[in-house]
Amino acid sequence: MKVLTVSDLHKTYGEKTLFDHISFSIGEKERIGLIGVNGTGKSTLLRTIAGIDGIEGGKIDHPYDYRVEYLSQEPEVDSKQNVLDYIYEGDTPIMNAIREYERILQQLETDPNNSKIQDQLYKHQQKMDQLGAWEVSSSAKSILTRLGISEFSKTLGELSGGQVKRVAIARALIHPADLLILDEPTNHLDHQVIEWLEVYLTQYPGSILLVTHDRYFLNRVTNRIFELDFGRLYIYQGNYEYFLEKKAEREQQEFSSEDKRQNTLRRELAWLHRGAKARTTKQKARIQRVEELKSQSGPSARGNIEVNIGSARLGKKVMECREVTKAFEGETLLHDFSYLFVPGERLGIIGPNGSGKTTLLNLLAGRLEPDSGEIEIGPTVKIGYYTQDHEEMDENLRVVDYIKEVSEAADGQIITAEQLLERFLFSRAHQYTYIRKLSGGERRRLYLLRVLMGEPNVLLLDEPTNDLDTQTLSILEDYLEQFPGVVITVSHDRYFLDRVVDQLLSFEEKGMPRRFYGNYSEYLEKKVEQEQDKPSVPKSITTEKTKKKKLSYKEKLEWENIEDRIADIEGKIEETKQQIVDAGSESMLVQELFEKQQDLEKELEEAMERWEELSLLVEEIEQS
């Protein structure tokens, strides 16, 4: 049994203790969720276990052949590498074989009559057979496709940041590992991909250690929770739901013990103050006991984020979009879009990446102008815009100065910037840290405070859950429930949307978002019902075909025989593959068989597409 053991791990960052001599072990096939307030060292712990960061004290032990695969929040990549080269990067025999095979295959496609390349291809096909690498290669391309990456020859520099993260996820999943470490894997993923990833991870052969803000994901994937809290590590044998129950019990017990300690201390001090003789042996023991009670530390003060900042009065007129159209690089993201935002609205905006969600927020915030149409903003509207990036943050400012820029400008501000920061879990000492030294999650929390301090009455939130810890998210959700203004949020976080919004704007069709009354879970349930009631019809089926009430004689014969035809083609492909292996070094024969295999695979793909068309047509006829 392969086990990773961490003993007496100690690490500090400046004056902050990240790991106060913590110990734990990770056995086989464990699913561990690591949680804690931003800045407590979650990402640092992941990097330490992965061997990227060093330690000040303690020890990490595991077998010599123990492999760890690590996915960071922001993967560092070579922009000149193409997708396949990146995901097959590594020093294992299988990855080396696949990488070399793909390289030779590309050469053969550009120079199909080169006998030397044909010989090399044959040799590497044999090597792939020996190592059992075909399954890994097929799995990699399947995973990439499920993650929305279909152009494998593109360089990473041609992809968006979200696409690069998806490619990095695919790489982490296909590399054999005893421990898979994932830092915020659900960022930039839509709900369909997240649900697929949930299922995939339940079948993953190794152990998993992950950090995520997605509480549904955390609850469904994990069977053990590690909580980092003020340098200490608490371990819970269960998922996130179990952790919440047990943490409440633990904190209640801690504070109960602290109350008992304080009461005992008060009684002992009162006894001493009575003036009894302090020179007796019993009295000296009592004094020593009092000193011990004083030296004991109670439970650390946990900052509960209190967001009781006010908001400006909002009149009856909020915002209205009238026939708004916006396009980028010839692609229409909004087309004649009209929408009336009303007081008290709680709207979630959902849809695939690149569909126009952030563009709509930028239009509402006045950062973009529509190509046509108009957006009217009510006279009392005061917008607070929480963006995905930190372009407005001056990293050379100290934390307290960044907040003072807003707090000192607010009218009638009673609470100080220092007090507000403490409520947002920034201690007095931490408030004089430069922004550039904060973790990603701490920056997000600080940025959120600044947005709310502007006392907006219309909140635009673009992926607010990314990089925020679960505690901050819970408090933010509580605040938004009490917020008297309008909330418009773009998010992929299912839990957050369920709690915060009561209607959705879904970018399902390009440029034509649709309105849905209900939360996110209700939307998904409705969508499943619609798909069951009305099976989707591929574009290849014409309008004329969808109106047919029965198959033609020719189609009926084709439908009866197409499965046998597919099986026959698959058999020929396997037979041809074996013939290539048997051909040995006869390069001319190998080339001829290779071309035959390609033709058969193309024929199989066309037959499968035709089978899908006919099967959907048969279903529709049966239903009608």
Features:
20 helices; 624 residues; globular; six-stranded mixed β-sheet; alpha/beta
Explain the overall architecture.
The protein is built from 20 helices and 18 strands. It has helices at 42-49, 83-87, 93-110, 115-131, 134-146, 161-174, 191-202, 215-221, 240-273, 281-295, 357-364, 399-407, 417-423, 440-453, 470-482, 494-500, 520-533, 543-546, 553-582, 587-623, and strands spanning 4-13, 16-26, 31-35, 57-61, 68-71, 179-183, 207-211, 224-229, 232-236, 319-328, 331-341, 346-350, 372-377, 383-386, 458-462, 486-490, 503-509, 512-517. The radius of gyration is 30 Å and the shape is globular.
Topology:
Blueprint (H helix, E strand, L loop, with lengths): L3 E10 L2 E11 L4 E5 L6 H8 L7 E5 L6 E4 L11 H5 L5 H18 L4 H17 L2 H13 L14 H14 L4 E5 L7 H12 L4 E5 L3 H7 L2 E6 L2 E5 L3 H34 L7 H15 L23 E10 L2 E11 L4 E5 L6 H8 L7 E6 L5 E4 L12 H9 L9 H7 L16 H14 L4 E5 L7 H13 L3 E5 L3 H7 L2 E7 L2 E6 L2 H14 L9 H4 L6 H30 L4 H37 L1
Parallel strand pairs: 3-7, 3-8, 5-6, 6-7, 12-16, 12-17, 14-15, 15-16
Antiparallel strand pairs: 1-2, 1-4, 8-9, 10-11, 10-13, 17-18
